[in-house]
Write a structure and sequence with these properties.
InterPro entries: GPCR_Rhodpsn, GPCR_Rhodpsn_7TM. The protein is mainly α. It has 13 helices and two strands, in the order ααααααββααααααα.
């Protein structure tokens, strides 16, 4: 039976808590990176890009999910909210998946080819990557939402089934709607998006994680510091003697390279599970009937993992020396 009054059960409360936590933790992390602008790197631009997406996705996705869960069995928030929810489901979910693939590629590049990474991974390249990233998503995924909105959206009315005595008869239309894409109208387009916008980034994350995990540390050539600081010292901002650079910086880079992939481990295996495109979601519902609990638990894991990553970045920026000493594999 359709709910007439809001029901404050576990799902809406959990979604609202996740929305608040996601917005607060990611906003704090983003604010910290913005304030410490002197330490910005090309990778920090990608991380700030991710935090901005997390803020929007947490506020919109979990906020609307919590409001909708107050009225189980129908969509009571109106058509504009439904349009926004579906746009978020398509674009921001795709953006999160593809951003994780960019981060995975960035980390793999830094570990597998450190010298080219230091030479070519600039802030300008990072900004152009973000621009190309959104151009790619807008060209491939946004038309699906727009075509569905203009031509194919089904305003399917839910009918109340009233039980009268021992018989059940159909009542009048309630005016409530199901908020979902009309996937039958664009089947090939939907499959294309599922493969190129969702599945490919997940495959990239998994492959890059394996490559980074099996990469053995060591065996890297140290730079030639026999003729003074040179480019090495200029790149790391050192103006002293070359001996202090060669003794400290290579060891730090080796330590960071050997531990940098560990915080990405839980995100790597959670990313496929939170992408709610039709094919994977049907399999997830069959494998785990408690799909709502799945969303809540994985959402909480994503929020807390990103929060831990933000704390680690703050630690590295504010206390770099203790970070280099205590940031070990065992601690990760």
């Amino acid at each position: 039976m359709l709910a007439i009054h809001p029901k404050w059960t576990f799902p809406p409360i959990a979604f609202i808590i996740l929305a608040v936590l996601g917005v607060l933790t990611n906003s704090a992390a983003l604010l910290n990176l913005i304030q410490r602008h002197t330490l910005h790197t090309a990778f920090d631009i990608t991380v700030m890009h991710l935090f901005t997406q997390n803020i929007l996705a947490s506020g919109i996705q979990y906020g609307l999910a919590g409001a909708a869960a107050l009225y189980p069995g129908s969509w009571r928030l109106g058509k504009p909210a439904c349009d926004l929810s579906l746009l978020n489901q398509l674009m921001l979910t795709a953006a999160l998946a593809n951003t994780h693939s960019l981060i995975a590629l960035n980390r793999a590049w830094a570990i597998l080819h450190p010298w080219s990474y230091r030479n070519y991974n600039t802030k300008r390249a990072a900004w152009f990557t973000c621009l190309g990233f959104w151009t790619y998503l807008l060209l491939l995924a946004f038309p699906y939402w727009l075509r569905d909105l203009l031509y194919f959206r089904e305003a399917r009315t839910l009918l109340v089934f009233l039980k009268v005595g021992t018989r059940t008869r159909r009542g009048r239309a309630t005016g409530n709607y199901i908020c979902m894409f009309n996937s039958k109208a664009q089947p090939r387009y939907g499959e294309y998006i599922s493969i190129w916008v969702y599945s490919m980034p997940i495959a990239v994350v998994l492959v890059m994680f394996v490559l980074v995990a099996v990469k053995k540390p060591g065996g890297r050539k140290q730079p030639d510091n026999t003729h003074g600081p040179g480019r090495w010292a200029n790149r790391v901002g050192v103006t002293g003697t070359s001996g202090s650079v060669s003794n400290s910086e290579p060891a730090r880079w080796r330590a960071e390279s050997s531990t940098s992939h560990w915080p990405v481990t839980p995100i790597t295996f959670m990313t496929p599970a939170v992408i709610l495109y039709p094919g994977l979601w049907r399999l997830a519902k069959k494998a785990w009937d408690l799909s709502l609990l799945n969303q809540i638990m994985l959402g909480a894991a994503i929020v807390n993992t990103h929060g831990l990553t933000a704390l680690k970045r703050t630690w590295a920026n504010r206390h770099p020396w203790s970070y280099r000493i205590y940031n070990t594999k065992r601690m990760a």
